[in-house]
Amino acid sequence: MPSAAGSSMTEIETVGHIARHRQIQPTELATLARITPQSMSQILTAMEKTGIIKKTPSTEDKRKVYISLSPAGRELLEQTRYERDEWLKKMIDATLTKEETDILAKAIPILNKLATNK
User: Fold this and answer.
1) CA distance 92 to 58
2) Tens digits of per-residue pLDDT, 56-90?
3) Ordered domains of the chain (ranges, CATH)
4) How far is it, in rounded angstroms, from Cα 44 to Cα 35?
5) End-to-end C-alpha distance for the chain, whole angstroms
6) 69 near 52, Cβ under 8 Å?
7) pLDDT in tens, 83-107
């Protein structure tokens, strides 16, 4: 399984953007990541070489290409989420008191409501 440890923050962020949009053009990714299209092109080339993404030409305009996650990219996404969740659990256990953990548990539904409100 791929590990997020070998990926840059921009690559991890890019994988997240692709996952949320399923198919997206490189220029849109660059805008979301707040980097130049040239920098995004370099990132996507590296990600394609490692098999994390796949490029699909547009059926309407052959000059355009859509980016989506490959099976390895979806594995990287799941591994990144797992590693993040494990880190968070470890930090909660090591840092928070029982009372703070209880407060956090009560706040989770409120945070979920905020996160899903568009």
Assistant:
1) 45
2) 998 888 889 999 999 999 998 999 899 999 999 99
3) 4-86 (1.10.10.10)
4) 12
5) 33
6) yes
7) 999 999 999 999 999 999 999 999 9
